[in-house]
Amino acid sequence: MRTVLLMLLLLVGLPACGQERVVYDFRVVNTYPHDSKDFTQGLIYLDGYLYEGTGKKGFSSLSKKVLETGEVLQSKQLSNRYFGEGIEVVGDKLFQLTWQSHMVFVYDKTSFEQLATHYNATEGWGLAYDGKRLILSDGSATLQFMDPETFAPLGKVAVTLDGNPINMLNELEYIDGEVWANVWMTDYIVRIDPETGLVKSYIDLTGLSDLTELGSNEAVLNGIAWDAENRRLFVTGKHWSNLFEIELVRR
Fold first, then answer.
1. pTM, 2 dp
2. Alpha carbon distance 127, 173 (integer Å)
């Protein structure tokens, strides 16, 4: 097990040992139901509800859910040609990325009526909002900043830890001035300074997947949502049967 852990750390560029780095473990506060059929790509908590974007061609969707029960209150299915990815809300608009189709859909947050589309020159993975700019991940070690009105690029930053690039940045959440990112195919969330790209801390969620039923062999950690008003942190995964509210515990 230790060998596997060290290989994962080296793979994503996280320090295996001997380096000063703030590391957080977790404590589960609450457990909620989550549909294991959902290939979670984007997750938002807003105004008392969960918004979730899911992927896979033929199964990609956008939905509004009741946190406590998982009940779907509203949903929109994407065309079978699109593989849905990350989502984000800006004002009364809801953005949804697609993976390799270079399309970004913009909906009315309330009705889910499509308002516009934008072109994205890269792959779409995760999306967050810092109050002025959309922040885009594309599976690389780069975060891009996009204009929320036109989706034109405004700049980018390379994400590194001790000079090493952190690749496979996936689902994003903007929390208290930091970009939090799932590192795909790992149990880690990295916390990124968006101005410098430096990773100053990370969260080790090893063992969380053991607390839920996994719906497929692709059931990996992915999905971060932040309740800013009550300061609650939610995480889930692709094809996970539960969504968890967690507290961080400094190691």
1. 0.93
2. 7
Q: What is the mean pLDDT of the chain?
A: 93
Burial 36-61 (b: 16+ CB within 10 A, else e): bebbbbbbbbbeeebbbbbbbeeebb
3 state SS of 211: helix
Residue 221's CB is within 10 A of a number of other CB atoms, namely 25
- 192 CB-near residues (< 8 Å, 6+ apart): 143, 159, 178, 179, 180, 181, 198, 199
CB-based contact 188:205 (threshold 8 Å): yes
Q: Which H/E stretch holds residue 4?
A: helix 2-12
pLDDT in tens, 99-149: 999 999 999 999 999 999 999 999 999 999 999 999 999 999 999 999 999
Number of H helices, E strands in the chain: 1, 22
pLDDT at residue 21, as a whole number = 75
Which domains are seen in the chain, by residue range?
Answer: 22-250 (2.120.10.30)
